[in-house]
């Protein structure tokens, strides 16, 4: 299969998510990518194998990171666009990635106490606040079940709320970070994803990126 078709299908999906906040229909993808039915099926399967897309059982797009077609606990409001936010990481990434939407209201509820939480996230500086992000699944296992992984990358009122939620759900702590660390992680992670051609980060460049934003340790697949 022609790589150009695969890239056109990828861009049709990503560009629609970026501009309209939702996934395009199959017909829209075929039109935007100038692809026929067979090409579309092959391209979408290929993109899922390369982890550009996450599909459900019928083969519909569930996620095109940082975008999601399903609610995972976050909503985002830009100047003109509404999105489901994916996880905490993806939600904080969208204002960095989408042209013309450099300031986005990110809203969620604390998984522990259900308090409503919201921040205006921009490209210029991290939002201030005492809240923390908790990521449950270590990065080396993130793609075992990526929807589960994203569902469990949440924002909490405080470290106390993280501990209360872990105790209630009988889970072990993953990684806790403040809003500034989450913002740094999100700021450049997806850069280039709305351009062609786009190369996903290989494990080595992912590790370098995590180190460059101050993350350390085996949770991130790093030795130190
Ligand atoms: Zn709370
Ligand atoms: Zn995510």
Q: Would you write up a description of this structure?
A:
The protein contains eight helices and ten strands. By secondary structure, the chain is of the alpha+beta class. The strands form three sheets. A four-stranded antiparallel β-sheet has the order 5-4-6-7. Strand 1 and strand 2 form a beta hairpin. The chain is globular.
Mean pLDDT: 96
Task: Specify the number of helices.
Answer: 8
C-alpha termini separation: 41 Å
Q: Unreliable segments (pLDDT under 50, ≥5 consecutive)?
A: none
Strand fraction equals 15-25%
Gross morphology is globular
Class from helix and strand fractions: alpha+beta
Q: Which small molecules are bound?
A: zinc ion
Order of helices and strands: HHHEEEEEHEEEHEHEHH
Q: Which sheet architecture does the biggest sheet show?
A: 4 strands, antiparallel
Helix content: 25-40%
- Within the largest sheet, what's the order of strands? 5-4-6-7
Gyration radius from CA atoms, angstroms: 17 Å
Topology:
Layout: H1 3-20, H2 26-33, H3 37-49, E1 54-55, E2 61-64, E3 67-68, E4 74-77, E5 82-84, H4 88-97, E6 103-109, E7 116-122, E8 132-135, H5 146-151, E9 153-156, H6 159-168, E10 175-178, H7 179-189, H8 203-212
Antiparallel strand pairs: 1-2, 2-3, 4-5, 4-6, 6-7, 8-9, 8-10
The structure holds zinc ion (2 copies).
Please give a quick description of this structure.
About 40% of the residues lie in helices and about 20% in strands.
Based on the model shown, name its key terms:
single chain, 224 residues, 4-stranded antiparallel beta sheet, 3-stranded antiparallel beta sheet, 18% strand, binds zinc ion
């Amino acid at each position: 299969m022609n790589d150009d078709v695969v890239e056109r299908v990828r861009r049709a999906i990503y560009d629609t998510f970026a501009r309209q906040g939702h996934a395009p229909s199959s017909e829209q993808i075929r039109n935007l990518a100038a692809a026929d039915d067979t090409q579309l099926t092959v391209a979408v399967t290929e993109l899922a194998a390369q982890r550009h897309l996450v599909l459900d059982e019928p083969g519909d797009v569930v996620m095109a990171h940082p975008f999601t077609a399903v609610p995972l606990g976050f909503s985002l409001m830009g100047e003109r666009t509404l999105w489901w936010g994916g996880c905490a990481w993806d939600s904080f990434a969208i204002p960095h990635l989408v042209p013309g939407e450099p300031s986005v209201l990110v809203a969620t509820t604390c998984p522990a106490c259900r308090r409503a939480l919201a921040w205006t996230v921009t490209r210029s500086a991290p939002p201030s606040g005492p809240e923390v992000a908790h990521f449950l699944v270590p990065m080396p296992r993130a793609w075992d079940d990526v929807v589960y992984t994203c569902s469990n990358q949440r924002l909490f009122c405080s470290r106390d709320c993280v501990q209360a939620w872990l105790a209630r759900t009988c889970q072990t702590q993953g990684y806790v970070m403040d809003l500034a660390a989450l913002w740094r992680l999100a700021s450049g992670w997806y850069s280039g994803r709305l351009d062609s051609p786009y190369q996903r980060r290989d494990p080595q460049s992912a590790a370098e990126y995590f180190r460059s934003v101050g993350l350390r340790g085996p949770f991130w697949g790093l030795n130190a």
